Every structure is written in C-alpha cells, then in structure tokens.
Fold this protein.
Amino acid sequence: MKTIKNIGLLVLLVALVAFSSEKFNLDTGYGIGDVAADFSLKNVDGNTVSLADYEEAKGFLVIFTCNTCPYAVAYEDRIIALDAKYKSLGVPVIAVNPNNPAAKPGDSFEKMKERATEKGFTFPYLLDEGQKVYPQYGATKTPHVYLLEKTDEGNIVRYIGAIDDNYQDASQVDERFVENAVDAMLVGREIEVKTTRAIGCGIK
C-alpha cells in the first residue's frame, strides 16, 4: 500500500513539474538572439514609422515608454540623451507607447503629441495601436528596452531590460546597462550583461 501511495505521489509530482515547465516555456516574447519582426506604427508627427525606414542604421533602441508612468517620466531625459549619443553612431531610439488609451487617457495620441513637443523628443514616439507590438516583444513595463542589432539575418535582440540601475537619480547611476550594451555591440565585443529586470509601471 505504501509503495502504491509513493508511486501516486511520484506521478503527481511529475505532472506538476511538467505543467510548471509548460507554463514557464510559454512564448512570452523575444529572447536574446531572436530576430525581432519589424512593425509599422503611427508617429506623433502623423507619419508611419518602421525599422526598415532606417536604411543606414546599425541597430535600434526600441524603448517601450509612456506619458503617465512616473518611472517613464523619470527616464525621459536619459532617453533623449541616449538618442543624442547613439543616433549619429547608427543606433537611434524608437520609442513606443504600449498603453491602451481607453485605460490610460493620459496616454492618448493627442497627449503623446503634447508630451513629445513639451520635452522636445528627438526620436519617433509611436502608438502601439491595438496593442499588437509590445506582446511580440514581451515588454511588461514602462520603460522596457530592447537593443536590436541590424544584420543580414534581421534585427537581432542583443539586450533586454532596464536603462540603468537607478531610476530615481541619474547622477547616482552605477551601472549603465544600455550604454554598456550599445558600446559593446558597436565594436563587436560580447555584451557582458544581456538582460536585466525592467523597473517601471505595468503596461495597461
């Protein structure tokens, strides 16, 4: 009887492990080394933007961000600085607002246009209308960064995560994750930290 009970427990344990593994392995977006699909989204200037528009680019900083999240707002100046530093080197910022305006009226297209003007955004600020792009990437926070390297095989994901290690104070940053990753990619060096945990608001 004890043997039968033990076998039953073993079967249950195996089933639970299999179920957990199945859940863990569900497609949750891109991983390092994956090819990111292009997208076509409306920019605040009314034009449609795709990665394919950037023929001379070496890569892209696709950053999911928004108007209303305090974390995203705290990083706005740093995102502008990233674009200023890397656009001329072939790695422009492409900002995407993934929030549903019905759930967050402050993230409506009109509000996006206002914010882009107020802050003087130097990069596209795109609306993920219908929320179709951010699930492909697996973005969960604002801000959430994906560094893509443009290759003959497509746009390869090289880094995923946070911009740096201190959202509260840019002057107190110790680890500049995105800058380190882009600098390494541009010289063909291995990126030491490929993933970090994005810190921000959940996408609405």
In short: Residues 1-26 have pLDDT under 50 and may be disordered. The beta strands are 35-36, 41-43, 48-49, 59-64, 93-97, 125-127, 141-142, 144-151, 154-161, 201-202. DSSP finds five helices and ten strands in the chain.
